[in-house]
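input
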Amino acid sequence: MDVKEFFQLSAGKWFSQRTSHHLAFKQSESGKSDLKIDMLPADDPEVIKLCQQYDIALESTWGGARVTWDGTMEWDEEKHAGSSVLVPIPDPDRPNEGKLLRDVGYAEKAEVAGRYIIGSDDAMTLITEYETMYSEERIWFASPNLRLRTSILKRFGGFSMASFCSEIRMGVVKN
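output
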């Protein structure tokens, strides 16, 4: 499976249940979110903007996706909502690997370029290194309508967190 096919399989509306374990506090918490993943063509203004920011030729990508989330976590009553644009840039020599441009990072709310690898098992691993932390997320399909995700977040010189999510497709996105 290539990165475009992985993104196409991910498009739609999803219900996500998450369990996170905060290693420093020796505590776990659960949460839930509604996710929406929309495909974006290469000529979408947000895709163009990200490619320009990272000095990437637009011909290097087929487009990307906008991920929107709205959820809650057990420890707080606060709503966790937002969205992020993701643009994969395949490595011409290794088509199952490349850069992943994001307008909002997973662990920090700033633009970031990470990398992705799609393994022989069709799971996508996203690796992002920030100034103060490291994030690794693995996403795979147990079936066409069930995605699973694991993630680790390591803050340099500080706490770490591990999470597991199950995501159930609730429908397709109407554009």
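quick obs: The mean pLDDT is 89.
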